[in-house]
Amino acid sequence: MIKKLLQLYPDAITGLKPNTDPQYTWLKDEIEDSYIGIPKAKLTKDEITLLTTLFPLKQRQKIVRAPLAEEWYQFLLHNGKIPYSKASDIRFIHFTIPNMRDDFQYKEWEEATKSLFSNEVIFVPFSHHHGVIIEDQPNLCISEEELSSAIEALESDFFIKIHFHLGFFQPINNQIKQLFQLEQRLLAVSLSNHPEERIMTREKAIPNYSYLNLPEQERPILFADIHQILLDDPDLIRTIKTYIENQANATLTAKQLFMHRNSLQYRIDKFIEKTGIDIKTFHGSFFTYLACLHMEA
């Protein structure tokens, strides 16, 4: 049957597993135990309805929350009471899985992810696509580097893309819900501005979050002088941003930008001379970084 579909849709692709590309409608041939992905642009609504009826993918597993996870779900997203916890401090690890396949095995993914932690964690799914992991503060918590390596394995095993936002440990008190809501906003900002990032933190999100919280009408006034300088030399935006992100390490920046170190240093010095802003200092670099974000907005 797949061969016949390929004749009708020559732009289609096949495989043993469907991928996460949202531009394709995936169908499964149960007899051949293989998949075909047809570009959605090549299908009418009636064709999609007919094909998905004839070749349905397995239904997603229904989300079932454990009793304690349900209490946290009601507290965080609704008006439930704060759940009892023996831990004094916890942190939220927010997760989102975009472009999920219809046959994604959520429960298996949850168990695999739980095994990454040295202590018990509470999985609180909000949907198949996103939720939060609640971690008690252990003697040794998982590092960003360890989580990064684990993400590669999980993405390979489950054919998905995962984004995490690592929160920080905080006492369980009346402010914990506000912290959760703030971290959700930081996650949304990170996903919008850095969709390539797999692990996000408040430190990474704050520059974009700070810029977006500036009054919109004040932004062009605040960055007017730098705006004109960067407008005259668009390549300078990437140069300055990379230099600041590398903590003014000229050697590393030059290597990443495939530039000679002396050429980079000349461009940095000319920028400082023109603007009067020393981007080698904290305040100068932070302000200039926001100006670069303004140019990219």
From TrEMBL:
Domain PucR C-terminal helix-turn-helix: 236-292
Domain of life: Bacteria
Name of the featured protein: PucR C-terminal helix-turn-helix domain-containing protein
Species: Lederbergia galactosidilytica
High-level lineage: Bacteria, Bacillati, Bacillota, Bacilli, Bacillales
